[in-house]
Design goal:
By secondary structure, the protein is an alpha+beta fold. It contains three helices and three strands, in the order αββαβα. The chain has a three-stranded antiparallel beta sheet with strand order 1-2-3.
Length: 71
Amino acid sequence: MPRQRKMKSNSGAKKRFRLTGSGKVKYKKCKHSHILTSKAQKVKRKMRKGGILPPEDEGRMERLLPYGSTK
């Protein structure tokens, strides 16, 4: 009898997204790794905090990370 294949998680998404305890997807904000001297202090301060993915993109994330879903 053939074995059922496992779905593969997207390796890029694994490195960039994490799931919270309530099932939301969090990520680190972009443009905060280099050339920070030319960015305003207010912009850098806002980029420190991570972001939560909007609910309309959660379906896309379930396809990219099939085993990360808590639902």
